Amino acid sequence: MKKIIFLSLVGILLAGCSTVTITGRKQLSLVSNADVLSMSATSYKQLIDSVPLSTDVQSAALVKKVGKRIADAVETYLKNNDMSADVANYSWEYNLVKDTVKNAFCMPGGKIVVYEGILPVTQNEAGLAVVLGHEVAHAVAKHSNERISQQMVAQYGAALTDMLLQNKSAVTRNTINTVYGIGAQVGVLLPYSRKQELEADHLGLIFMAMAGYDPNEALAFWQRMAASTSGASLEILSTHPSDQNRIAQIKADLPEALKYYKK
Q1: Where do the H-state alpha helices sit in the chain?
Q2: Which of 11, 114, 153, 260 has the greatest number of C-beta atoms within 10 Å?
Q3: What is the percentage of the chain residues whose pLDDT exceeds 70?
Q4: Residue 151 in domain
Q5: CA-to-CA distance for 67 and 51, rounded, in angstroms?
Q6: Max Cα distance, the chain (Å)
Q7: Higher local confidence (pLDDT), 188 or 30
Q8: Which residues are catalytic?
Q9: What is the residue range of 208's domain?
């Protein structure tokens, strides 16, 4: 029985793989696009209905302008590289929210929210392109699908661990299950999130370059972001890479991104 369950888990992992465009990274994908997009659309509507949208008409228009410019460039790239079917997964929408948080996020299918608090850091159109390129990258790389799949496997693994320990004492089982939970979170789920963030930075540079924005602007943006952030948590316990690691990786990724850049 144990062997059957273990082999089933291995089979699921081998079968549920896809490839991220441009980077070529293999990723776990156990959920359908249709399911994820349906959940995303519902959640996004609930969010937009519950938060105050920005009354800064000029900034809100700029968010939509830059977002559309990047999304159009990405869709053109996908169509030109035999990935037209992927374009059907996106229904781009951009909203600027009235909040002082320095953040932005993207839901599957291209539902993007930018908080007003990040505008003093972006400073200009190119800085905003850094943020939106990064968020568009999360959608194109289907990072939400991957995160859901990882959670599914982690839960399956916890159940398998408990079954394998069924003949052990209650104290032993509780101790090992606690350690498993910490190990899964720190050893797998958080690092994968950091990997996704760096991948979104990488793809975001390329996408903003495709749209005619100089990817070198990303360095200045992240330097400003680092200067505006204090009391950052340890990277090993964070879902995001440290500012220093992020900037170093962006410098390494710039030569590739510049190949796509046309003024």
Answers
A1: 2-15, 33-50, 57-80, 84-87, 119-122, 125-140, 143-164, 170-184, 190-210, 217-228, 243-258
A2: 114
A3: 74
A4: no
A5: 20
A6: 67
A7: 30
A8: 135
A9: 18-146+189-258
Phi and psi of 166, rounded to 5°? -65, -20
- Tell me whether residue 43 is in a domain: yes
Which is nearest to 126 in space by CA: 74, 78, 65?
65
Amino acid, single-letter form, for residue 59 = S
Q: CA nearest 209: which of 142, 145, 133, 112? A: 133
In a domain, 70, yes or no: yes
Domains in the chain, number: 1
- Among 5-9, 47-51, 189-193, the range scoring the smallest mean pLDDT is 5-9
* Contact status, residue 136 vs residue 209, Cβ threshold 8 Å: no
Strand partners, 112: 94, 106
- Separation between Cα atoms, residue 47 and residue 112, nearest integer Å: 11
Mean pLDDT of the chain: 81
Q: Give the pLDDT confidence of 73-126 residue by residue, as tens digits.
A: 999 999 999 999 889 889 999 999 999 999 999 888 899 999 999 999 999 999
Half-sphere CA count of 116, side-chain side, radius 13 A: 14
Is residue 57's pLDDT more than 90? Answer: yes
**3 state SS of 133:** helix
More confident residue, 163 or 106: 106
